[in-house]
## 1
Amino acid sequence: MPEPIEDFYAVIPAGGIGSRLWPLSRADAPKFLHDLTGSGQTLLRDTWDRLAPLSGPDRIAVVTGRAHRAAVERELPELADLNVILESEPRDSAAAIGLAAAILSRREPEVIIGSFAADHVIRGTRTFEFAVQQAVAVAREGYICTIGIPPTEPSVGFGYIKKGGELPVDGAPEAASVERFVEKPDLETAREYYGDRSYMWNAGMFISRADVLLGEIAENQPELYAGLMELAEVWDDRDARGPVVDRVWPTLTKIAIDYAVAEPAAEKGRLAVIPGHFDWDDVGDFASLAKLNSGGRKENLAILGANARVLADASSGIVVSQTARVISVIGVKDIVIVDTADALLVTTSEHAQRVKGVVDALKLTGRGDVL
Amino acid sequence: MPEPIEDFYAVIPAGGIGSRLWPLSRADAPKFLHDLTGSGQTLLRDTWDRLAPLSGPDRIAVVTGRAHRAAVERELPELADLNVILESEPRDSAAAIGLAAAILSRREPEVIIGSFAADHVIRGTRTFEFAVQQAVAVAREGYICTIGIPPTEPSVGFGYIKKGGELPVDGAPEAASVERFVEKPDLETAREYYGDRSYMWNAGMFISRADVLLGEIAENQPELYAGLMELAEVWDDRDARGPVVDRVWPTLTKIAIDYAVAEPAAEKGRLAVIPGHFDWDDVGDFASLAKLNSGGRKENLAILGANARVLADASSGIVVSQTARVISVIGVKDIVIVDTADALLVTTSEHAQRVKGVVDALKLTGRGDVL
C-alpha cells in the first residue's frame, strides 16, 4: 500500500444511471450500485477501495443525487458527511466536478483533485496507483492531467486523446502533453488510431489543482463558474446553503467536463496525459459486460448473479439473473438475457447499444414504472 | 349445428403434460389446460366444444389423472361424474382409451367411441364434423377408423398413414382402407410422402365400436385386455372399485394405442381412414406454437399471454408471457421466450425440440420444483 498523497483529494461523481444496462441499471439502482464483475461488491465500493490508499479515506468526496444518498452511505460507511456533495438534480459532469473543485478549493486552496467515475472497472492496482501518482506530479506543475488508456482494440465506443510531445516533470516519467481531444470516431478512423499508438482512450479521469480546473471553467463557461462560486461560498454554512442551492442549481449550465474543460485546455496546451497501463472498462453496454465476464472466451456463456440458476446448452453471451428463477438457455449465440423482478431483456451483443432506445420507448409509452 | 350422433360417445384422453412446451406446460399446468391460440379458452375446452355437438354433452368421457380432476371439472362444468375416468397413474394411451372402451362397452354394448386428444388445435368445424360423421359410418361396419390429415408440408414430426383402396361405405364417401402405419420418417422420406399424396399424418384420432377396439387389444395385448376387463367389471360399483384399481392398475401394460391397436389392425386390413380437411396442429413444440400464432408470417413476433407487456424491435419468433413483467426483445430472430413466474426459457425455433432435454436435465439436477 502506498502512503496517501498529502495534497490529493479524490472525487467520485456517482450520478449516471447507465441506461444501456437497463433493466439491470435503473433510476433506483444505477450502474455504480451493481456488482458487474462477480467480485461480491459494487462498482462504487471498488472505486472507493482503489482510491482510498492514494488519498486516505477521509479525503474522498462523492458527488451524487439525493435519491442515492442512502445507498451510497450504505456502500461507503467510512464516507464523512463533509464529503457527501448532494446534487439537487443532475446537471452533467462539469457542474458535478466543478462544484467539488469549488468547495474543496475554498477549504484548501492548494488541493489537487482527481475525479474518477464511480462505475468503471479497473484491474491492476499498482499500475493504477503509479498512473495517479504521476498525474498528481504533473498537476502540481499547473497542468490538467488525464489518464489515457492505450487501446487494446479499434473501439468506436470511446473518445480518444492524441498524445503530443513528452513533458519533463519530476516523478512523472511517462508524462506527455495532449495535442487534441477526439470524439468517438468511425470504425475506419478507430483502426487508424489503433495502428498509430499515439491515440489513447479517454477514460474520463482528470487530475488537476482545483483552482486550475476552476480557472479553465471560468474562461470557457463563465456563467457556470459564477454559479459554482455562489454555491461553494455558502456550501459549508448549513443555514445559508438551502436557499442558494434552490435558486442557483437549476441555472447551472449542463455540459460535460470534456467540452467545458478538457477540449479547450488541450487547445491551449494546458492538458497533459499519463498512460494507464491497467485493464480498464467502462462497461458501456451488455456486450462489454459479456466480454468482461466470459473469461475472454467468446464461446462462453457468462453468468452474473449471486443466486443465478442457469441451465445452458450450446449457448454463448451473457445471462444476468436478479431473480431466483430457473433460466434455461438453448442454442442461442451471443445472447444477452437480463432477468429482473419486473422486466426482462432479450437481445444480442450486436444490438446491445440499442437498449438505450428501449428505455426511451418505455418512457414514451407510459411504462416508466420499470425504469 | 348437427344433430348428435345417437350411438356415438366421445373420449378425451387428457393426460400428457407436453414437456416440449416447458416451462409453459408442466405437471400442475399441462398443455391441455392452456390457451395456446389466444382464443380465450383452454385447448381442453376447445376440444369439448368441438365434440359436444357430435356426441351431445352427456356423452363425452374424459380420461385424466387424479391431480388434474379439479382443473378439468372447472373447465368443463357440464362434465358428469359418470364421464370422469380417473387414472391412478399414467399407463399410456392404450390403457387410457382401452379402459374408456371397456367401461362404455359394459354400459352400452353397441356404442361407437371416438377418441380425440385434449391438446390439439383444430380449425374448421364443419369439415371436422363431416370427417367424424364419415368415420362413425365406417366404424359401424366394424372397422377401426382413423382421421388422417393430408400433409401441408414434409413434416418429420408426425407418424404417417398410408392410404390403400377405397372403401364403399354408405355415408362415408371418402373412406379408404389403410395399407400401413409409418413411424416418424426422416426428411427425405417425408418429402417422398409429401409428393405422393397417399400418405396422411396420424393425428391420433380413432373411431370404432368399443367392442371392436377391445377385440383388437385382446388379440395383440391379452394381458392388458384382461386388466382392463377386470377394472371395467367393477368400475361402476363404487364400493368394489378401489381395491381392484389398486391391485390391477399398476400391472397394466404401458403401450401406445398406435402399437397396441392401429398398426396390427392395419396389417390385418381392419383399419380405415377418412381424410380430415381441417387445419390441424398438435402444437408439439414452441416452433409450432410460434407458427400457429404468427399469422403465418415468419417475420412476425407472435405474442401469447393475456397480460403480455412486450416491447419488440426487429425481432421474430414467439414470446409467451405468464407474468406482468415488461419484456423487451431487440434484434433476435426466430427466438422463443417463455416467461413464467419461476422459470424462463430462451431458445430458437430451430432448437425447440431440445426443450424436452432440459426437462430431463432439470429432473436429474434436482431442480424438479419448476417442472
## 2
Amino acid sequence: MFHYIDSPQNPQFKSWSGLLESRGIRKQGQFLLAGLKTVPEALTRWPLHFTRILIRHPEWITDWPLPEHIQPVVLAGPLFRELDVSGTDYPILVGTLPPIAQADLSAPPKGLELVCALGDPANLGALLRSAAAFGASKVILLEEAAHPFHPKCLRAASNAVFTLDIVRGGRWAALDQAEGPLLALDAGGDDLATFPWPEDARLILGEEGQGVPPQVPAQRLTIGNTGNVESLNATVAASIALFTYYAGGQ
Amino acid sequence: MFHYIDSPQNPQFKSWSGLLESRGIRKQGQFLLAGLKTVPEALTRWPLHFTRILIRHPEWITDWPLPEHIQPVVLAGPLFRELDVSGTDYPILVGTLPPIAQADLSAPPKGLELVCALGDPANLGALLRSAAAFGASKVILLEEAAHPFHPKCLRAASNAVFTLDIVRGGRWAALDQAEGPLLALDAGGDDLATFPWPEDARLILGEEGQGVPPQVPAQRLTIGNTGNVESLNATVAASIALFTYYAGGQ
C-alpha cells in the first residue's frame, strides 16, 4: 500500500533533495512544504498543488483525509531528516511549482503592488506573510530576490504564497519604464506615518542592507525612528509600510 | 605580540565556545559579538564592554584603532570557524555580560515598557532592534524569553542591546501584581490603528504562536488584517505596535 524508499541513491529521493536549493526547484518545477500548521492547511485549502506526501511511518497519516491524487511515500529516517531541514518531524508535501508570469510594469498598478529584491529566503517569506495579511495585490520579484518556493521562504511565509499573485520583474533597470506612482522605502524621504497612500501604487523594497538604488525614479518614504540603531530590519520596515497602507484604507 | 591559540583543548577557547549557548553565557558572564557592521560600531561606541578581539590573522586588525584594554587573540582556522557561527569571516569581540536587574513591576511604567516572552533568539534580537528604533524605555524579559546576549539575538539586534534598558521580569504570574496600563497584542481586541496610546504603558508580547495567556489582566490590542494568513510574524506584529506608539508621540 505504501511506497517505501530507503536508499539515498533512489532517483526520486535525489530529485526531492535537490528541492532544498533554488536551482533544483527551478530545474524540476517542484517544491517541498513542511510545517505543523502549514501542511494541514495547505492540504485542506490548496490540495491540487500537491502530488506526494513524505512521511516516516504510515501511522503518521492514518487519520488524515488524504485526497486520492496525493501519494504517500515512506522515507527511511536518515532520508526523511535530510529533507526535514526545519526539524518538524512531521509530514512534508511535494508540490508542483505554479507558473510564475512576467510582470507588465508598463501597465498602471492596481491596488498596492510590492516590487521586491530581498535576497534572503527567510526574509522574503516573512515579507510575503505580511503582504498577504495586509492585502498587497501583487508581489513583483526582481532578479536579486530569493526564490519564493525555497523551503526557508515557505517556512516563514505561512502559506502566503498560495494566496498572493507573485510575478517576476526582471532587473532594477526595468523600473525606469514602470508606470507609477512609484514609492520606495529608503532614508531621507517623506514621513511614512503621515503619508496619504494612493489606492494604487508600486512600493519598492531594496536588498537587505542596500536599500533602493539612487537612480530608481520613485518618491522616497521614511519610517521615523530614534536613530538608536543603524537601520530597521528590512522585513519589519516593509511590514510597517504595508500596515499603514492597509490601515489607511479601512 | 599576538596571543595565538590552535588547540581545541585550550581552556580559553573552550570557555568561548560555551558562549554559543545561553547556559555558557550565564555561567561565564561573557558573550561573543560578531558582524561586519556591529563589531566596528560596538568598538567605537561601547569599547568598555569588551576584553578580547578574536581574529584569524594579525592583518585583519592592522589598521584598527584598538583600545589598549582589548587584547587581540589569533585563533587557528577551525577554531575561529567554530565560533563564527554566522560565517562573517570577520573579527569577533568577547564582551563582559552587564548585570541584568530584576524589574519592579509594582512601580508604574515610565514611557513604553515591553514585557516579552519571545523564546527564539533571532526573533528576540529583531524585536530589540525595533524597540531601540522606536524608543521603548525598557524591555522586561519573562522567564520564557531567549537570552538577550545569545549570538543569534545579538546578530539580529544590530547593537540594540547596548542602548536598551533590559531587565528580568520573572513568570507570567508576576503580571498579576503589575502596575498598568497593561496592554497585550492579541486577537480579538481593540484596533491598534486607532488606539490612542498613553505615554506610559506596559505592552505585553507572548511567545511565538502562543500569544498572551488569557488570565493576564491586560487590555487587548489587535492589528487589523485581511485574514489571508493565520497570523502575523510575532516580531513584525510587535514592531508595528512600537511604530504606532512612536509615530503617535511625534
